[in-house]
C-alpha cells in the first residue's frame, strides 16, 4: 500500500495510513473505571467508545502487514499544516500505491477488493484489484482499468500523459507472468504493450544474452512477434521501479528474471519491441534502481560477488544496444568461491533441448569431496537467480557449495541448477519457478509435493553424480514452502539426507486454513 508522493505543485504530500477507529469497549465496562479516569486526568473531550467491540476480530492483510486492515489516503497540506482524509474511495476496496493525477486535479490509486478475504497480499499478485481515480473537486471516483483482473505498480510518464502498470489474472498461481499495460490519460484508452509469455525460449538461458555472446547481432531488439515465440521470458518482477520511464515518455525500463539470472530491458510502449540492456554484460543479477533524465543507476551482483553500483546513459531510441555500463565502485569477489550453471532435463521431457553447463568449472579432479547442502526455495512460485546471497557465500566459506537450480515447464523445458563451489550446497528452482513462462507456473498447480519434490531430488542426484561431492554428507535447508519440500525429501529419501534444518515449515494445511496466508 505504501506511498509518499509530492503533488506537482509541491504544496501537498500524499500518503497512506490505517483508518482510525473508536476505542473498543466491553458491554460490561464499569462506571467506576470511567469515573476513575476523570479524577486522574480531569474532564476531557473524547470520542465515544464502541461498545461491544473490545474483542472484535478485524482481518488484516497478512504477512508484513499485520494490523493493517483498512488503509485510507491522507493529504498533508504543507502550507496550511493540516491533514485530511481523502473522500470518495469505495468502501469495498483498500487503497494504496497512490500518486497525483496530472495538474493535481485528483489522485490515482490501486484499490484491492476486501472480498473474499484479505490475507496474503504481500506475496500474492493475483488478488483482485483495479486502478481508480478520485476527483478532488467533486469526490467522484472513476474506474480506469479492468476490475476483474489483478492490477498494481502504476507509474506516471514524465509528460504526464500515460500511466503504465502491471496486470495479471485474479486467479491462478500467487505469482504469475504479468502483462504490461499503458493507460492514456487524455483519451481514456488502455493498451496492452506486452502480453504474458506462455513459454520461455527453449534455447539458451534467455535469448537476449545468448544472441549477444554467440556472434549474432549484439543486443538486437525483440519484436512483439518474437515475444509470442518466447524469445522474451516475460515479466516476473513484483513491481516496476519507482522511476522507470525514459525522458521521451515513450520507452519504459524494467528488470526481470529470465531463468537463472536477472536482466534489465527497455520496452518501446508504442511498438512493443523489447531490447535487453545487459545482453553483453557479465552474467549475474542486474537490478534497475532508478532512472533520471536517461541516466540509469543499477546494481549488479553474482553468487560470488556482493552488489556493486553501476551507471549508464540510455542512448536514443534504436541505439540502446550501444549502452555502456560504468562501475561506480570496485567490489572484489569473495575469494575461493566459484559458480556455474548446469542444465538438466527432467525425466519425461521428450522435447527438451540437450543438457548443457556453462560458467566456472567445478572442483579439479584431485580435489577432496565436499559436504553438500540442498537449498529448497519457498514460494512455491519464486526463483533462485544468480544474485549475491550472504548465507550461501558464508556456507561456501565454511566448506559447502551452493547449487541453485531451475526447472522449466512440462513439454520442453529445462532443469538448470546453479553450483557455487568451494563445497556443494544445492538450491533448486523446480518446475513452477518464475522466469520460465506462464505454462511453467501453471504446471505446478495441484502437483505440490510431487513435481517440486521430484525436481529437487533430480538436481541433487545430478550434482552428486557430476561434481566431486560427498554422498555420505548431504543435508537439506528450507523455509516456508522450501521447508515443505525439504521435509518431503527427508521422509522419502532417508538413506541420502543426513540432516535437515527448516524454518516456518508448511506441515499441516488443514490447521492453517482460514488463519494463515498459505492456503
UniProtKB/TrEMBL annotation:
Subunit structure: Homotetramer.
Annotated protein name in UniProt: Acylamino-acid-releasing enzyme
Keywords associated with the record: Cytoplasm, Hydrolase
Region feature (Disordered): 339-372
Similarity annotation: Belongs to the peptidase S9C family.
Gene Ontology CC: one annotated term: cytoplasm
Gene3D superfamilies on file: alpha/beta hydrolase, TolB, C-terminal domain
Gene behind the chain: Apeh
Predominant cellular place of this UniProt entry's protein: cytoplasm
SUPFAM superfamilies according to UniProt: alpha/beta-Hydrolases, DPP6 N-terminal domain-like
Residue intervals of the Acylamino-acid-releasing enzyme N-terminal domain: 2-140, 230-334
Lineage: Eukaryota, Metazoa, Chordata, Craniata, Vertebrata
